[in-house]
Amino acid sequence: MEVKRVLLKDYTTLGVGGPAELWIVENEDDLLRATEAPYRVLGNGSNLLVSDQGVRERVIKLGGVFAEGELTGWVGAGSLLPLWVQEAARAGLSGLEPLLGIPASVGGAVRMNAGTRFGEIKDALAEVEVYHRGKLERLPPEALGLGYRRSALPPGAIVTRVRFDLKKAPREAIAARMAEVDAARKRQPKRKSAGCAFKNPPGDAAGRLIDQAGFKGLQVGRAMISPEHANFVVNLGGATAREVWELVKRVQNALNLELEWEIWGEVEP
User: Fold this and answer.
1) Is 171 a catalytic residue?
2) How many domains does the chain divide into?
3) Inside any domain, residue 170
4) In the chain, which end has fewer C-beta atoms inside a 10 angstrom radius, N or C?
């Protein structure tokens, strides 16, 4: 196990976040030790806004056996979802195509039931291994309370491994499906971001509402509501959490939208 002081801006897709003690756990014994004090769990750092002051808790990142696996067996939650999407396509296994382009760890994707308008990760799960209160337990996906960008995992529970439920399919059909998903994601910005900032309200799209309200391109410091897609806040380089949060609050003060991101630490001005 490796323990080190880091700046979380280097571990988030938005590129924002202050100091923390990072614990990289490689096996179950490491996990037991790392969870002896208050902790948070870091996946690939997407859908996350971290305070400029960082966090006091230990930050656990899964490595070792929790970042390995086999597509037709158990897959480590610390591994990256995009790698498995591509491997499944090469193997002629269908089920992960809707998740193309989601920059999440497998565990993070399960915790928030990541997905696109084409499908969610819950649709591709057979079984999930969860660490909670010193024990590992294997659960069916329906036991996790997975819904639109949420789960009912108890506080402190850590997704450690998953088994995917994939079906054989012609590679040409898988490639066509992935091309359809990729085409729908072309409008997303190329700059650093935390992914979609707000959940889509029933029957509508958050990005459309934000654009219609005139917020697209609004800038606070080095943070900006993306001109390409209004449901993304992008880092122009050197943005702070408070600048990002000010944009979020301006949108929320004008529109009744629920935040999709997780917030770590104090981000209020």
Assistant:
1) no
2) 3
3) yes
4) C
